[in-house]
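Now read this:
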Amino acid sequence: MPGEFLIARHDGGGRGLLGLGNAERAGRMLAAAGMTVAKAPGGDSSLVLYPAEAVGPAGVGLEVAAAIPPPDGVLALTVPDGRPILVAGALARASLLGAEANPDRAWDLARGSVSEERPLASPAVAVVDDRSRRAARRLLLRSLRKPVDGVVSRTLNRPVSLAISSVLVWTPLTPNVLTVLTFLTAVAASALMASTHFMAGAVVMQFASILDGCDGEVARLRYRSSKLGSWLDTVFDDVSNIVFLVATGYGLRVAYGEGWGTVFLWMGVATGVFALIVLVQTYRRLLSGRVRDSGSLEWSADPDSDPFRRFLAKYLIHFVKRDTFYLCFLVAALAGLPWLIVVWSVVGGGLAALTTLGRQR
C-alpha cells in the first residue's frame, strides 16, 4: 500500500471548488486515506503522483491508497478526460525519479514508464474548465448524501442543507462551531415552545433539523471530520430532542391550564424518560461497536423475537427519525394542533423504548 504522495499541479490550477483549491483538496483527500506527503519524488517506497485536477469523493483517495503497483513499474489509474493518477513502485521510484526534484516533471517521467493501466473505479472528474468544475461540484455534493437518510431528509432536508453547506464552506466557520450553532438554534426553538409560540418554535426547530446536516457536510467537504465532532453532533442532537419535547409539554401546560394541560406536560416528561432509555442502549452500542453515528446502527429485531417486536423494529424506525418527526411537528403546529407533538412523541417514544429494551433480552 503506497504511503506517500505528491501533487502534480500544472493542469490543476484555476479557481477553487467548494472551499478548497484543487491541489489542497487532493492533498487532504489522500491524507485522510492514511497517506503522507513525500519530501521528494525519489525514495525507497512506492509513490502516488496525483494530478490536482482529478476531483472526486473520499472513495477516490481510499482506492488510490489501496492500489498496489508493480515494484519496478508504474500503475496508471485513468480518469475520464484527464491525466491518470500514477502509482510508482519502489524500484521504479528509485530508478526513475531519484534525481528529479519537481513533482510535475516526476509525473511526466512516470507517465512514460507506465507498465499497467486500468480505469479508476471511483467516480472522478478532471476539472479543466467551468463545465467540468460544475460537474465536479455536483459529484462532491451528491456524495454527501447518506444511505441512512430518511424520506424527508432525502427529499427536503438534504437538498436544502447541501445548498447552505456549499456557501458555508467558503466561511471560516468550523464543523464544530456549526454543531454548536445548530444546538443553540434548537434551544431557541425550545424556548419559543415553552413560551407558547408553537408555530414559531416548530419552524425554528425544522430549520435546526435542516442545519443539523451542515456540520457533517462541511467536515466531509473540507476533510475535517473528527471523533470529537461526531460525538458533539450526536450528544447535542439527543439533548436538544429531549429539551424540545419537555419544553413543548410545559408550553402546552401554560396554554391549556390544568386538566389537559397537565396531561400534556406529563406526556412531554414521559417522552424525555423514554428517550433516555433509548439513549442508554444506543450509547452502549456506540461505545461497544466503536461507531460514531447513531444513524448507522442497525436496530432490526433478533429473528427469535416475538412478531410484535419484529414489526416495531422493522417499521417504527421510519417514524422516529429526526427528519420525519420534526416535519410532522411543524405540520401539527401550523394546523393549530400543537398537542399532537407530545401525543406523537409519547407513543413513538414508548414503542421505541419497548423495542430497545426487548432487544436486550
The first strand starts at residue 4 and ends at 8. The two ends are 44 Å apart (CA to CA).
